[in-house]
């Protein structure tokens, strides 16, 4: 048993200890379990919101995308920074409305705004469909990280089983409190490791940042500019715009935001979160270092760039430390995703259908759903093929379909009816599903269009269908949100 295994085991024990500590002395009713009793200050909310982007996808995928594609990876920093600016105006009125009406989920927000439990159930289903692929992605990343950093002593499947059991236990026990405390450990550890790797590796292999970029420019100049087609400038801009407006509608982020104890928390975080996003630069530096130092990784193997480069550079104890931090980047977001999916199911599907007599029964349903969702996700990871890949591609565009009716619900006079909102979301979701499964889009339908138009994010098409259906149905159904008396904000 090498030293890296001891370090990985120590991280798992520490995670469980923090979860037990977080649950100690708390009455875990539904609000306490799902949104921390709405009592979190700026630091915990900062870590929960920041934790949504420092996942295994960022840890492995950020350096991997630089390794494979180069400049298009910058879109992540662009949309995150703009999304945080957007949150300055968006989150305070949402928080006040949710606090006033006791809302703890995005589907509950829709149900209350449009006075329609059926619409809330539809949004809950879309939210769960959009959340499960993210859980699958984290578990898959966890398997890769533990297998690589244990030098093959633990197989990816075994690592995913252990990770799933651990995260299921601590989510059921401590809810968002456990996620918040483990996020403290995760972010301190990841800042230390990522900054170290991003500074040390370029100097170790090239003698500095400028020589590293000069070497890459000499051998692979295309890695430093946007391509003329595919992930071109128009793809980057359209993807950034769509992601910014949909960012805080991700069910996990929405719930994390509701855990704040006051709207001032969001405004403080708007100052610091864009600065924190700069941590991604160090991940990118690792990817650029690996371009010439770990050649030959093809396709999805590019995601191994950071781990392969680290293994050929450092001693086993350092690899164990990197593996432990990578494990945290998988388990903390997974815990929030599981918590979100369980809450959506219990609050907005189970409760309207079965009308339980007490809140305790709803909380029990949410906690019971956690292992079912966790092990279903694990099943998809182990057995998933192309269907899983398509589901993952669909997830972000699915959440995006909530944007038009959500933003309209914030207006003083909402022109959208519950029928328009529901059918618009359904039409958008169906369009996303068709385009993903049929692997079609603007470039296929209109091959003579300019390249910049063909490269636009496919989510724009589904969003356009959504808006047209929403507007047409709202005009004809003649039932506005104002008539139901729930149109106010704040």
From TrEMBL:
Subcellular location(s) of the protein: Membrane
InterPro entries: Na/Glc_symporter_sf, Na/solute_symporter, Sodium:Solute_Symporter
Transmembrane feature ranges: 38-60, 72-91, 118-139, 151-173, 179-201, 232-250, 271-297, 317-341, 362-382, 388-407, 419-437, 457-476
Membrane topology (UniProt): Multi-pass membrane protein
Principal localisation: membrane
Keyword vocabulary terms for this entry: Membrane, Transmembrane, Transmembrane helix, Transport
Family statement: Belongs to the sodium:solute symporter (SSF) (TC 2.A.21) family.
Protein name according to UniProt: Sodium:solute symporter
Origin species: Brevibacillus brevis
């Amino acid at each position: 048993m090498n030293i890296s295994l001891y370090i990985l085991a120590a991280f798992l024990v520490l995670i469980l200890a923090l979860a037990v500590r977080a649950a100690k002395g708390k009455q875990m009713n539904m609000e306490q379990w799902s949104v921390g009793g709405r009592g979190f200050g700026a630091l915990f909310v900062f870590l929960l919101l920041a934790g949504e982007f420092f996942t295994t996808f960022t840890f492995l995928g950020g350096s991997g995308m630089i390794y494979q594609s180069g400049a298009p990876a910058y879109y992540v920093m662009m949309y995150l920074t703009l999304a945080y600016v957007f949150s300055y105006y968006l989150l305070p009125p949402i928080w006040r409305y949710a606090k006033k009406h006791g809302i703890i989920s995005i589907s509950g927000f829709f149900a209350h705004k449009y006075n329609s439990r059926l619409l809330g159930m539809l949004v809950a289903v879309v939210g769960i469909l959009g959340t499960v692929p993210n859980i699958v992605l984290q578990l898959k990343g966890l398997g890769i990280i533990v297998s690589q950093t244990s030098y093959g002593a633990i197989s990816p499947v075994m690592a995913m089983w252990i990770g799933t059991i651990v995260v299921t236990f601590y989510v059921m026990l401590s809810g968002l409190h456990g996620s918040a405390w483990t996020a403290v450990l995760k972010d301190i550890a990841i800042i230390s490791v990522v900054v170290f790797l991003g500074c040390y590796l370029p100097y170790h292999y090239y003698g500095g940042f400028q020589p590293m970029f000069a070497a890459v420019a000499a051998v692979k100049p295309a890695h430093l500019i946007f391509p003329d087609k595919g992930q071109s400038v128009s793809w980057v801009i359209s993807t950034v715009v769509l992601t910014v407006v949909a960012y805080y509608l991700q069910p996990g982020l929405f719930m994390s935001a509701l855990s704040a104890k006051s709207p001032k928390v969001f405004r403080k975080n708007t100052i610091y979160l864009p600065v924190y996003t700069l941590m991604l630069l160090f991940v990118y530096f690792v990817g650029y270092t690996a371009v010439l130092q770990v050649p030959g990784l093809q396709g999805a193997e590019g995601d191994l760039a950071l781990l392969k480069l680290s293994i050929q550079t450092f001693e086993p104890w350092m690899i164990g430390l990197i593996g432990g931090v990578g494990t945290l980047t998988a388990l903390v977001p997974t815990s929030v995703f599981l918590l979100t999916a369980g809450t959506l199911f219990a609050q907005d599907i189970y409760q309207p259908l079965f009308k339980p007599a007490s809140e305790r029964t709803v909380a029990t349903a949410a906690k019971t759903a956690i292992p079912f969702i966790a092990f279903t996700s694990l099943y998809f990871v182990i057995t998933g093929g192309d269907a899983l890949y398509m589901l993952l591609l669909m997830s972000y565009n699915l959440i995006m379909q909530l944007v038009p009716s959500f933003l309209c619900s914030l207006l003083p006079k909402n022109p959208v009816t519950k029928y328009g909102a529901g059918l618009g979301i359904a039409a958008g979701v169906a369009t996303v599903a068709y385009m993903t499964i049929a692997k079609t889009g603007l470039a296929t339908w209109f091959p003579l269009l300019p390249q910049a138009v063909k490269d636009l994010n496919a989510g724009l098409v589904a969003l356009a269908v959504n808006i047209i259906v929403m507007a047409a149905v709202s005009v004809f159904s003649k039932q506005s949100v104002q008539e139901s008396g729930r149109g106010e904000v704040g």
